[in-house]
Amino acid sequence: MKYIIIVPDGASDHPIDILKGKTPLEVAETPFIDSLAKKGVLGRVKTVPRGFTPSSDVANLSLLGYDPGLYYTGRGPLEAANLGIDLKEEDLAFRCNLITESEGKLLDYSSGHITNKEAKILMEYINKELGKDNIQFVFGTSYRNLMIIKGGRKLGLEKLKYFAPHDIMGQSISRYLPRGKNSQVITDLINKSKEILYRHEINKVRVDLGESPANMIWLWGCGLKPSMPSFKEKFGLTGAVISAVDLIKGIGKIIGLKIIEVEGANGYYDTNYKGKAQGALEALKSCDFVFVHIEATDEAGHNQDLRMKIACLERIDKMIVGTIINGLKDEDYKILITPDHPTPIAKRTHTDEPVPFLIAGSGIECGGFSSYSEIEAQNSSLYFDKGEDLLHYFFGK
Q1: Where are the domains of the chain?
Q2: For residue 51, what are the CA distances in angstroms to 48, 54, 58, 114, 259?
Q3: 216: β partners
Q4: Is pLDDT at 313 greater than 90 in this prediction?
Q5: pTM of this prediction?
């Protein structure tokens, strides 16, 4: 038996007036996914435990079968794992976004999805100007980067309250700076980065071209190195991860899953959808399980881009789901399709309500569903209040 999980990040949504009260999942043309729904079962799962911020790190840990209450220590160290950074027990890892600031407000959490080439130059410049023996800035991908503070735990910085930049777009930066004991260490770095980045030639060119400049850093997602049992230990299966983002790949590395790199997978609307599907099929030749994560739908939600959210769902259906099920037609397999969390267009950020899931394949009896959507899933009695329980159900373990 082969197992596939497909995660269209943030795909779940709320009813939208312009769609006559329907959601993007309801209006998108997804014949492959809907055909699976007709043959399988739908349900709902709460991926974000009570008391946790509805974030991708927490939600994807749940989907991979790990209780965030036991294993979550912060986003930064998960991303650091994918970059091969060996954190010591007292070290802290932070997510470091390149953002666009204007008149004291955070305008763009991604600096217009700045290119890797530009971001790498800027991160190296920041490290030269702000880095110290115990502070290192590390390039990741595009706007998604890291800062490491060696021995930072002794300052208690992991106890401060941090805010994700995609949650505060258009808001006053001063309101959301971390506060508490020793918070000045972080706020000074954020404020100094503005002085440094405003004058960089790359940003002058971006402004001239009408593009969002990467004129400030935003530090958040602080955490310590986590300790988790391997996926093989928990489920007795070998597996692989396919994603464009360091967070998901970092979780995969920590729990011993193989990381499949796909050329052209960039975490945005124009990611290499078909390449991810082909990578999944290739991985299943040697692995029992593959986890395919697609960031594009989440980005569309954060950008309030309804047209692209629908378009990305349709691309996922045709180029990922269609390619995979056609490639496995002679195999025994089970497939699970589920968002990690909702990213409603109207709210422009993550929410914590349950998400709809679909399970189909060998041994799954038809549940009488006509399509895959939030409404159809609500008609099902199948519900998991703990996200980690869904994978046990899926694997039958």
Answers
A1: 2-72+229-395, 82-223
A2: 8, 9, 11, 33, 31
A3: 99
A4: yes
A5: 0.92
